[in-house]
Amino acid sequence: MGSNSKSPIIFTFVCILLSFVLLVDSVPINETRFRPVEELKKLRRVRARLKKINKPSVKTIQSDDGDFIDCVISHLQPAFDHPMLRGQRPLEPPLERPKGHNSSDESFETIQLWAESGELCPKGTIPIRRTTEEDVLRASSLRRFGRKIRGRVRHDTMSGGHEHAVAFVNGDQYYGAKASLNVWTPAVTDAYEFSLSQLWVISGSFGNDLNTIEAGWQVSPELYGDGYPRFFTYWTTDAYQTTGCYNLLCSGFVQTNNRIAIGAAISPRSTYNGKQFDIAIMIWKDPKHGHWWLQFGSGMLIGYWPSFLFSHLQRQASMVQFGGEIVNSRSRGYHTSTQMGSGHFASEGFGKASYFRNLQVVDWDNSLLPLRNLHLSADNPNCYDIKAGRNNVWGNYIYYGGPGRNAGCQ
């Protein structure tokens, strides 16, 4: 009787134990069954995106830094995927540059790493840095790939961990800007941080209608997978929400030049207490057609942003900025050691600190003018600072930058 009464208890216990084992066993089976499906879906989305970005090329040049530069027929570049450009061809460069433009003081020595081999893209094509699966997978999300995070133009306060040291003018109508800035290789200490130096041409409020056009150099391990300073462009018409992108990673900017690859590494770079290398950048609005043109170096026109991309910038800009920006993610619980510019403070001056020289704006009459009422702003001067000056050779200039984390910057 006693042994019979125990049998149901033992049977029940065994059933419960088996159920538990089966339940535990089923978890990893389901996970391994579903995870590859999700990964395959993501990979398919990534490859579809790459197909839109990477156009068929007539020639490919490999750079010493590992980049592949594809020579793409100019009217097949990503810009012409835009509904308002489909079936068209790039415009001829404007005949008239801003009055007062003088290329005699611009550097001829700075080129891009991929071009050091002497190979160039044929006439009628443009060089495009090939985007890889690894480039896309490094992004925080496929939707955000090639885009900036909101809050990357300084107005009154730091936003989202972005810190600036900038000079700016506002309160007037601006039709462009020009400056020369020296190129460095600042250390970026976190994979999702960056360090850049650029010109901003801005219009609209600092709300959701913000329009910007931007160009300069940046170090961005997330975007490029390395620590090289690279020539870059950016645009947005809704404060970085859904419009715009870096370089040629979406339809928008129309490139016309076959010698410069946007997004490619700049070489050579400046060294501390050594030789300085700078690049000249000018952005201006062509009075005839209203498009915003980009000039790089000694008079090379790179291409243009069609005016229809914008709302406020269809007319003119209301602010121009020059300077540096970093992201401070505080991923280790304290201020980042990511450097801005050379990684040295403005007070160290020439050969040690980063600079912008010959700062100018373009007025309503398509004339380049020196700056009036220049304002300086450093979000966190113990980490990165800025100072301005003026002389007969450099006109308006600024020194800016810093090391990030130090005894005064925690």
From TrEMBL:
Name by which UniProt lists this protein: Neprosin PEP catalytic domain-containing protein
Feature: compositional bias, Basic and acidic residues: 94-104
Pfam family, one: Neprosin
UniProt-annotated stretches for the region Disordered: 83-104
Species of origin: Centaurea solstitialis (yellow star-thistle)
Keywords, alphabetical: Signal
Keyword Signal set for record: yes
Domain of life: Eukaryota
Signal peptide from the UniProt entry: 1-26
Domain Neprosin PEP catalytic: start-end pairs: 156-410
Keyword Signal carried by entry: yes
